[in-house]
């Protein structure tokens, strides 16, 4: 699973061990993948729980295929139901104050102070809407 980029938790290791035991024909009462079993597993194989440092995405080709399939499905639904206008709405966060994560400062300083109004995490939600004719709604 890790080679596929899927995060693996200790609980997932226990569940997979139980599934493998069932596949191997071991009775449920004989193996329960307990907490102490998991500790022994971690001592033997020395896996570590790490924070993610990178997030991968599908390739552009994969996204293009999914987009083409979705667009064809929407077009088919529009034709089948004689729909004239398709509406689309979405919500997005609008911050009251935006502060850049970087600033120019003298070289070598370790603490960089930036003044702000204290509203850096406060935000409102804006909903935008348009239709397939190109009309935008307030």
From TrEMBL:
PROSITE patterns on file: HTH_CENPB
Occurrences of domain HTH CENPB-type (ranges): 1-51
Source superkingdom: Eukaryota
GO molecular function: DNA binding
InterPro entries: Homeodomain-like_sf, HTH_CenpB_DNA-bd_dom
Keywords: DNA-binding
Protein name: HTH CENPB-type domain-containing protein
Organism: Aphanomyces astaci (Crayfish plague agent)
